Amino acid sequence: MPTLATNKRAHFDYELLDKFEAGLVLSGAETKSTKMGHISLKGSFVTIHDSELYLTNATISHYPYANFKIAYDPTRSRKLLVKKSEIKSLIGKLHVKGLTLVPLRVYTKRRLVKLEFAVARGKKAHDKRSDIAKKEDERTIQRTMKNQ
Which of 147, 148, 145, 41 is nearest to 102 (CA)? Predict the structure, then answer.
């Protein structure tokens, strides 16, 4: 499963609770552009409209060899393919205050383009600082072990 794009800020800004997998509904040119790696999840999020999930604000750049006769919007909302039972459970989880859906990565599974997203809770500033301190401690331990 080669990863095409990752959301690097998700692990830093959010505490991830549950992970889910969904298929992405893309046009042919968008699929080719995505498989070439021309997708960015920076600033994107997952929304629910009329009991359907959408990936909002993800940027898929224009495929250079496609013939677009109409204006192409690289940040349009793209529908996610998820089972209805999962959507109902997600709606129930999102009624809890402070929870949101965050896209984590886009990857291919056989010939399909999939999105991994998570139910997440935003971290406070002191949580982020403690995470940074833990990482620095681990790095210093690794350096001292390597030097000895």
Answer: 41
